[in-house]
Each structure stands twice: as structure tokens, then as C-alpha cells.
């Protein structure tokens, strides 16, 4: 086997010894931070004219339905699921199907008054069962609004 030659490392002149601080005046050029841009004021997008028209029509329809129900004496939950019903708190209208799938006449006439908890139970039912239950409640009313 041939012996390898061990050579000593040469000390470079540009390396600063550990106990001295290097002079950075000639080699270090700090870059200033970029100035912050002012943010534009964000203007919220309001509702469009179609939504406003739909919302106003819905409010008017709801108001008319509420008066009609009060006139015939329906002021409590018609669904009345035992042990969860709120009776006369947080009342709203439960339609026989999703509003998008109903005609204008069905939206106006085919609904019942129910509390939020009973309505949420109805919403989780299959559509056919929910529709049958609501139609049964409408049919069994003594006075129709």
C-alpha cells in the first residue's frame, strides 16, 4: 500500500481570526425595506336588485300569512312532536317541500306553522314522508287560513 501524503492547510489571508471582528464597511451594503403601500378601502358589496325584490316579496308573503293564521286562531306549533316542541316560541312556516320546488300558489298556501325544533326534525325526514306529514296536518285542520 502506498502512503498518502498529509499536507498542512495554508492559512488564508482573508479569513479573520475568531477573536477579531471583521470590517464590513467596504463589503456590506444594507438594503432598505420597501415602503408599505396603503391599502385601498374595501367597500362591501350590497344585495342586488333581484335579491331585494325577492326578499321584499317574501317578507310581504310571510306577513300576510302570519295575519291569516292569527285571524283563524293558529298561534302555536301545529307539528307538536312530543318532548321537544316549544309550543309558541320561535314559530315559522314549514312548507310541504323545498321552496325552490314549489309553485307560487303552493308557497302561499301549502305550509304549516311550527317551532324551530319541530321544523328541524321535519327537514331531516325523507321528502316523501315530510310532505305526507305536512299534508296530513293541513287536511286535519278545523279552519283553514
Description:
The chain is 35% helix and 7% strand. With 145 residues, it is mainly alpha-helical. Strands 1-2 form a two-stranded antiparallel sheet. The mean pLDDT is 83.
- What's the N-to-C terminus distance? 111 Å
The Cα radius of gyration reads 38 Å
**Total number of helical segments?**
4
Mean pLDDT, rounded to whole units?
Answer: 83
Can you tell me the residue ranges where pLDDT is under 50 for at least 5 consecutive residues? Answer: none
The dominant shape is elongated
Strand order of the largest sheet: 1-2
Give the fraction of residues assigned to helices.
Answer: 25-40%
Biggest sheet, in brief?
2 strands, antiparallel
Strand element count: 2
Write the layout of secondary structure elements.
Elements: H1 49-72, E1 91-95, H2 104-109, E2 111-115, H3 116-123, H4 127-139
Antiparallel strand pairs: 1-2
Offer a quick outline of the entry:
The chain has 145 residues and is mainly alpha-helical.
Highlighted features:
2 strands; 4 helices; 145 residues; mainly alpha; 7% strand
Amino acid at each position: 500500500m502506498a502512503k498518502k501524503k498529509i499536507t498542512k492547510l495554508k492559512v488564508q489571508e482573508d479569513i479573520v481570526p475568531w477573536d477579531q471582528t471583521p470590517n464590513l464597511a467596504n463589503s456590506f451594503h444594507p438594503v432598505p425595506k420597501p415602503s408599505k403601500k396603503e391599502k385601498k378601502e374595501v367597500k362591501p358589496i350590497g344585495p342586488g336588485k333581484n335579491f331585494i325584490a325577492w326578499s321584499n316579496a317574501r317578507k310581504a308573503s310571510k306577513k300576510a300569512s302570519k295575519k291569516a293564521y292569527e285571524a283563524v286562531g293558529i298561534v302555536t306549533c301545529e307539528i307538536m312532536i312530543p318532548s321537544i316542541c316549544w309550543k309558541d316560541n320561535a314559530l315559522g312556516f314549514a312548507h310541504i317541500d323545498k321552496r325552490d320546488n314549489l309553485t307560487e300558489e303552493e308557497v302561499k298556501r301549502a305550509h304549516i306553522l311550527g317551532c324551530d325544533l319541530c321544523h328541524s326534525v321535519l327537514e331531516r325526514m325523507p321528502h316523501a314522508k315530510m310532505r305526507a306529514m305536512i299534508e296530513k296536518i293541513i287536511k286535519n285542520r278545523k279552519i283553514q287560513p
